[in-house]
Design brief:
By secondary structure, this protein is an alpha/beta fold. It contains 15 helices and 18 strands. Strands 11-10-9-5-2-1-13-12 form an eight-stranded parallel β-sheet. Strands 14-15-16-18-17 form a five-stranded antiparallel β-sheet. Strand 9, helix 7 and strand 10 form a beta-alpha-beta unit. The N terminus is likely disordered. It holds the Pfam family Alpha-amylase. Keywords: Hydrolase.
Length: 538
């Protein structure tokens, strides 16, 4: 069998190209990026129309949240068919055109794979649900009889990541496992057909020209076959970070290496040594850095998060990744404008007081901090516009986290509101002829791209210039410099320096030959004010 055509022309890893080690990667939540057909939902036509904007921003790659056929019970993370594009977004032909057109502009594509579970509308699960208890079709998932006198109790006490039990009972008496919503049944990764199918899916997309794959919930796939009750502190955990996972990712790496593809894993682990195992040379290329993203706006804690991140990546030679926000996390401007500037899913609540002016000032400084650090940076759509978290009317919330919490959690829809492109156009130029799938709040036009493009002091202008200048830092390591309490100061290549002042006292700038970029104005004595960052050349 000959090589797939895209494999012949996919040189990224095969030539030793390490673009992904220092890339700026832009996360596209297709449903809310741009609407090309006017039906209220973002789509691939909308993304294609905005490729010049993304090229002008200067990003190296686009990471797309799932664009596959899906009932959308969890924003597309309930996949019914990995080889089909959801009709709301377009067609497979359009996806192939988008990948190719982006590549012509120097922008690579990363797709999202959700290996832990599928949709309950996936053909495999529909067949399993139609089969009798004990049938081979059910072996692809985790079906078990219940406990109790009549099997009326779940097989174990595991809880869903979205709240409530992790088990749902079918009318025939069997229960099935779902670590997320009931519409997202977990796959059985001990079954060879599950492993083979996912390797085939990887090849399918690599052959269509994608440069990489982001792996959702990467540490959750493998379960203890006994499915025991959960015991706090038990090692190994019954379904998180089990050793059997590493052979899965080694087999995936062999597939990726055929095409020069790369992986980034969503790996939430507190143990830095175990985290680093996923980044060994024959496993994943990189993983998301959640410690930095959830860290409060505090100089000591940020420095610790940076040091710990670099230290845990060093033994395996993997690049660090830096991200301030994503499709699950409260937007940076809002989070940094609150009394508690960290992030914890359990702490989310309606009506949290927020100072958006303060949050914006800190978010601008954080942008320069993250873009000056060694490694790759992930930028969630709209962060470059300084978008705040939107308050979604309760009757318009779609996120299952809200409903599974009994209505106490506001959910994640507030960071998923359609982008504003043109201040004078209906629905801020999102492209819709009718109201978008999520409502845009009052004042959304203030953040519109066309308005910010005319303002040299806008958040968009700051991001564009920072991404343009970022290569001055090279690939040199980070060296901390002496600095007053509350000030982060470090050097990189050729004497380039970054200073971030989180203290209440203006900071003196060190000697320099050039002021490259500053997140806000210096004071009248040329000092760096509180919540401001600067890039200098010594």
């Amino acid at each position: 069998m000959g090589q797939p055509s895209h494999a012949r022309n996919a040189p990224d890893g095969r030539r030793g190209d390490t673009w992904w080690r220092t890339a700026v990667i832009y996360q596209v939540y297709v449903r809310s990026f741009a609407d090309g057909d006017g039906d209220g939902t973002g789509d691939l036509a909308g993304v294609r129309s905005r490729l010049p904007y993304l090229a002008g921003l200067g990003v190296d790659a686009l990471w797309f949240n799932p664009w596959y056929l899906s009932p959308m019970k969890d924003g597309g993370y309930d996949v019914a068919d990995y080889r089909a594009i959801d009709p709301a977004f377009g067609t497979l032909t359009e996806a192939e055109k988008l990948i190719a057109e982006a590549r012509e502009l120097g922008i690579r594509t990363i797709v999202d794979i959700v290996p832990n579970h599928v949709s309950d509308q996936h053909p495999w699960f529909r067949a399993a649900r139609a089969a009798a208890p004990g049938a081979p079709e059910r072996e692809l998932f985790h079906f078990r009889p219940g406990r109790g006198r009549r099997g009326e109790l779940p097989p174990n006490d595991w809880t869903s990541q979205f709240g409530g039990p992790a088990w749902t009972r079918l009318p025939d008496g069997d229960w099935y496992l779902h670590l997320f919503a009931p519409e997202q049944p977990d796959l059985n990764w001990a079954h060879p057909a599950v492993r083979q199918e996912h390797e085939d899916i990887l090849r399918f997309w690599f052959e269509r020209g994608v440069a990489g794959v982001r792996i959702d919930s990467a540490a959750l796939l493998v379960k203890d076959p006994r499915l025991p009750d959960f015991t706090e502190g038990r090692d190994p955990h019954p379904y998180v970070d089990r050793d059997e996972l590493h052979e899965v990712y080694r087999s995936w790496r062999r597939v990726a290496d055929e095409y020069g593809g790369v992986f980034v894993g969503e790996v939430w682990l507190p143990d830095s040594e175990r985290f680093a195992r996923y980044l060994r040379p024959d496993e994943l290329h990189s993983a998301f850095n959640f410690a930095f993203m959830s860290c409060p706006w505090d100089a000591r804690r940020l420095r610790t998060a940076i040091d710990d991140t670099l230290a845990e990546h060093a033994p395996v030679g993997a690049p660090a990744t830096w991200v301030l926000c994503n499709h699950d996390i409260t937007r940076t401007v809002t989070r940094y404008g609150r009394e508690d500037t960290g992030f914890d899913f359990a702490a989310k609540a309606f009506g949290t007081p927020t100072d958006l002016a303060l949050g914006t000032r800190r978010a601008r400084a954080a942008a320069l901090l993250s873009l000056a650090l060694p490694g790759a940076v992930y930028l969630y759509q709209g962060e470059e516009l300084g978008l705040p978290e939107a308050g979604i009317p309760v009757d318009r919330i779609e996120d299952p986290m809200h409903f599974r919490s009994g209505g106490t959690d506001p959910g994640r829809d507030g960071c998923r509101v359609p982008l504003p492109w043109a201040a004078g156009a209906p629905y801020a130029g999102f492209g819709s002829l009718e109201e978008p799938w999520l409502p845009q709040p009052a004042g959304w036009t203030e953040y519109a791209v066309d308005r910010q493009e005319r303002d040299p002091g806008s958040m968009l202008a700051l991001y564009r210039e920072a991404i343009r200048l970022r290569p001055v830092f090279g690939d040199a390591p980070l060296t901390w410099l002496p600095a007053p309490e509350g000030v982060l100061a470090f050097a990189r290549a050729d004497g380039t320096r970054c200073l971030v002042n989180l203290s209440a006292v203006p900071a003196e700038l060190p000697g320099h030959t050039e002021l490259l970029l500053v997140s806000g104005p210096l004071d009248d004595r040329g000092r760096l004010p509180q919540d401001t960052a600067v890039w200098l050349r010594a």
